[in-house]
Design brief:
Layout (H helix, E strand, L loop, with lengths): L7 E3 L5 E3 L8 E8 L2 E8 L2 E6 L2 E7 L3 E8 L2 E7 L4 E6 L5 E6 L2 E7 L5 E6 L6 E8 L2
Antiparallel strand pairs: 1-2, 2-7, 3-4, 4-5, 5-6, 6-9, 7-8, 8-13, 9-12, 10-11, 10-13
Amino acid sequence: MAVVEELLRSESNGTISFGNHQLAQKAKKEDYEHEGDMYKVKTFHAMTKLEKNGLFLYESVPGTSVLNFSESAEGVSFTVEGEQDAQITIGLEDDSEYQVVVAGESIGTMKTNLSGKLNLSVELEGIGEVEVKLVKQA
């Protein structure tokens, strides 16, 4: 597994990677600039949280490491790593439907709540890492 030792980093493909689910103590990195936006991450074994420009973007319980996180008008995609199954909340467009694909398989369409949050569970225990894609429906 490839945890993000620096807590938050820009990748050469324009995505970001963040979180370290192996930390015993809470750690955070603030005021990280990536493509004109400011990011803040808090992470450790029990929780990982990412904010963009002061707004909620990602949270997992327990903590996870996230690689190649990309967001666009079409949705969000990333690879998530962890030692245990995780409950993930993503900040998206409010009151919208998204096709959710986990490990290459569709798990159906889910609707965000009025604050734009979408909750999903991913099985990581014994697997290690899983690709997640949320595609906005027209």
